Structures are given as C-alpha cells and as structure tokens.
Amino acid sequence: MNGTGDAAAEVAHLVPDVETLGQRLASVDYLVDEALATSIFLSLRLPQPLLLEGEAGVGKTEAARSLAMVLDTPLIRLQCYEGIDATEALYEWNYPRQLLAIRLAEAGGEPLSEQELFGSEYLIRRPLLAALEHPGPRPAVLLIDEVDRADDDFEAFLLELLGEAAVTIPELGTVRATHPPIIVLTSNRTRDLHDAVKRRCLYQWIDYPSPEREVEIIRRRVRGAAESLAVQVAAAVARMRDSDVQKPPGIAEAIDWLAALEVLGVERLDAAAIDRTLGSVLKYSEDQEVVRAAGLDQLVTGARSG
What we know:
Elements: H1 3-14, H2 18-27, H3 34-45, E1 50-53, H4 60-71, E2 75-79, H5 86-89, E3 91-93, H6 95-107, H7 114-117, E4 123-125, H8 127-132, E5 141-145, H9 152-164, E6 166-169, E7 173-176, E8 182-187, H10 195-199, E9 202-205, H11 211-221, H12 227-241, H13 251-263, H14 271-277, H15 285-294, H16 296-305
Parallel strand pairs: 1-8, 1-9, 2-5, 5-8
Antiparallel strand pairs: 3-4, 6-7
Helix pairs in contact: 2-3, 2-4, 11-12, 11-13, 12-16, 14-16
C-alpha cells in the first residue's frame, strides 16, 4: 500500500463513521451537530477540502484544531490577510545560507552550480509546503484560516493545492504530497469566494449554537462553572447578538465572560456584574455603548427568562 493508502487507512481506523467522529470530537470538548459531523467525515473519506463559513467566533478554527487532536496529527495553520502571497504561504529561499555556501565554495575553488544552489536544503518551508511534505503516518490538518481576507490572486494560487494536493516550485518542479493533507478553509464571509475555490470544496455553514448547546460548550471550557450562571451568560450573550452591536460576541467571548465571572466569584448575573465585566464579552467600545444605552437590566431580564 502506498503512503496515501496507508494514511487513508489510518484515518478510517480512527473515525470509521459519522457517529464515532462526533464522539471523538466531543472527547476533546468540541461539540458538533450531525450536519457538521457529516461534512467533516466526508472531507476525510472522499477526501476533499472542507470550506467552513459562518460569523466570527462560531468555532470554525476550533473545528480544525479539534480534528487534529482527534487524529493525533499536527495542525498546520496558514493565517490569511490582505496582501498575502505565494512566497509567504508556500516557501522562500534561505538567501543568507545560499550566500554563505557561495562564499565557502569560492574559497575552496569549487563554485556551486545553480542546481545545487536551489536545492531543497536551501528551502524555507512555509505552512502549505510543510503540510504537503508531512511524512505521516496520518496526514496533517492544514488550516487555511480566514481565506476571505486574501485577494483573488491568492485564491487562484490555491487551486492546484486544493484540487491535486500539489504545488509547483519553479526551481524544483511539482511537489506532490505522499500523505495529502486534510484541508480546512474558513471564511467569515467578508466577501464572496471565487466559484473555482468552492467547486473544489465541500461546504458547511456554521451558525451560532442553540442556547442549550452553548451552555454545554462553555461549561466544558470553564470547568466547575455553575450551570445556572452558564445559562444566564448564554442567554445574555444571545440577547447581545440580537442587538445592534457591530461585532456580535462569539462562543469564545461567552467562554471568556463565564471564566471572568467565575474568577470574581459571581454566582448570579446582575447589572453590576455585567458592568464590571463587559470588556470580557464585548471587545469594542462602541458596542459596549450600544448595550449600556439599551440598559444592562435588559440583559439580566433576558438571562433570567432563559
């Protein structure tokens, strides 16, 4: 069996079906519904890149991180940003080392050829190339995070990787993975991605969880937190998301808030506790002003009724 077959067999052994995958993700405190579990499972088995879209803070990045934990394999993350290019994502040449090699060769009277100078030993591997060259036994999880922040040219550059698990380096030729990475792309949908990218991927939208599910999630992350306080936090966060804030708090902010309240010994949410800890859940002053103007008691009312 070749490397690709071995890797597929390793993954299939760990997650033989959708139910097992959901259980294994829950064991690392990442709770999924059936739709998301099915999409992740299919991305492993087909295999095919998985594009996760949703509001900021719903757990897209955490899905890839948790999957890497379940598979006991490295998570290799490429954080996208405006202006990112192939060099920063794929590779660059180690110019100081090349220069040193040239000088040593000249001193020894044996000049280096261009082929020797641009060998793999002088290559600095960035996330995409590192994921392709991962030796196994299981494939690495390659997280291409917030791909919507990059531009159209970078999307076009990704097509070969997404479609063939390969990249082309002019000096070395095509590098093809022996253990093709499990590729997860995330997008906050600040802009639409190109159809060519979407065609190469499975797609799953991740929404905010139900209040009941969010309580379960945040209690797993803040061990020992009282259920009653977690219920109040989840209800108050839901009320904030339904308000006019520009940056609705995600699950991570709900976790931060519950942790802060626990540290302060707060047993029940009230307007005073919210006022003291609002910076744990709303990270923009304008959004804090919106919530305060509407009245902090409104959040308490929503929390108690939840």
